[in-house]
Amino acid sequence: MARAEHGEPDEPAGRFADDLIGLDPYDPEAQEFAAHLDRIQQCDSRATVEGMLRGVGDFAHSTNRLRGERRLVAVLLVVLMLFGVGFTVWNALVYMTATFTG
């Protein structure tokens, strides 16, 4: 039987049992700090497609937490990247049509 059924709290698991001993595992700030430590220790290769997509996902999640001028800068950065991709695709299409027709 679990200890909670006898009125005793269950032992904390994960980071709260190893690195964050003594912190309240139900505190939202402590949970965010544990998630931050998990992201820091994640050592996936950025040289793979999956690693690059994970990096884009991390950027998107952190951008959603931003407010004010930092959010504006992040949105401007994304718009500039999309403009660069669109410009590159447009130039490639123009080059391909010029090559095939001429």
Polypeptide structure, described:
The protein has helices at residues 15-18, 28-41, 49-65, 69-101. The protein has 4 helices and no strands. The chain is mainly alpha-helical.
Radius of gyration: 23 Å
How many distinct beta strands?
0
Question: Segments where pLDDT lies below 50 for 5+ residues?
Answer: none
Order of helices and strands: HHHH
Largest sheet: none
Number of helices: 4
What fraction of residues sit in β-strands? under 5%
Overall pLDDT confidence: 83
Helix content: 55-70%
Q: How far do the termini sit from each other? A: 79 Å
Topology:
Layout: H1 15-18, H2 28-41, H3 49-65, H4 69-101
Keywords:
mainly alpha, 4 helices, 102 residues
Short description:
With 102 residues, the chain is mostly helical. The chain has 4 helices and no strands.
